[in-house]
């Protein structure tokens, strides 16, 4: 466990922030009148989480070859599954927030966008080895 804390500190910080933002009661503001602003926030949160998981994976595996499918599982599949668990917990364990299938779709979209961006744009610049 301590190994993961040392190797993925920023990812754990982002995950903790997403957990907090998913379960706190947001204040009522004029921004609530903007339609689907909540979905944009979900896309940004999960794109950031997925991107950070990818970046730290690539940083930690620079010196030796690692299967790239590990990054796809950890950077795309895990955030989507995490998102599903959060939505279920919001639906059944909180009284002030309900789970929303559109939130899950927005979270999956954000995870996909973050993963694809890091894979296509950033990975070729920082991961010089030819990993499979």
Automatic annotation (TrEMBL):
<feature type="transmembrane region" description="Helical">
    <location>
        <begin position="67"/>
        <end position="89"/>
    </location>
</feature>
<dbReference type="Pfam" id="PF04892">
    <property type="entry name" value="VanZ"/>
</dbReference>
<keyword id="KW-0812">Transmembrane</keyword>
<protein>
    <recommendedName>
        <fullName>VanZ-like domain-containing protein</fullName>
    </recommendedName>
</protein>
<feature type="transmembrane region" description="Helical">
    <location>
        <begin position="36"/>
        <end position="55"/>
    </location>
</feature>
<dbReference type="InterPro" id="IPR006976">
    <property type="entry name" value="VanZ-like"/>
</dbReference>
<keyword id="KW-1133">Transmembrane helix</keyword>
<feature type="transmembrane region" description="Helical">
    <location>
        <begin position="101"/>
        <end position="122"/>
    </location>
</feature>
<feature type="domain" description="VanZ-like">
    <location>
        <begin position="34"/>
        <end position="120"/>
    </location>
</feature>
<keyword id="KW-0472">Membrane</keyword>
<feature type="transmembrane region" description="Helical">
    <location>
        <begin position="7"/>
        <end position="24"/>
    </location>
</feature>
């Amino acid at each position: 466990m301590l190994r993961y804390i040392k190797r993925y500190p920023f990812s754990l910080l982002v995950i903790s922030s997403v957990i907090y933002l998913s379960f706190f009661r947001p204040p009522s503001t004029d921004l609530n009148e903007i339609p689907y602003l909540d979905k944009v926030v979900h896309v940004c949160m999960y794109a950031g989480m997925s991107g950070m998981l990818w970046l730290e994976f690539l940083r930690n595996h620079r010196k030796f070859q690692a299967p790239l499918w590990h990054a796809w599982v950890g950077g795309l599949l895990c955030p989507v599954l995490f998102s599903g668990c959060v939505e279920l917990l919001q639906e059944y364990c909180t009284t002030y927030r309900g789970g929303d299938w559109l939130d899950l779709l927005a979270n999956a979209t954000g995870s996909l966008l973050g993963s694809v961006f890091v894979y296509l744009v950033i990975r070729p610049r920082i991961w010089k080895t030819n990993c499979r």
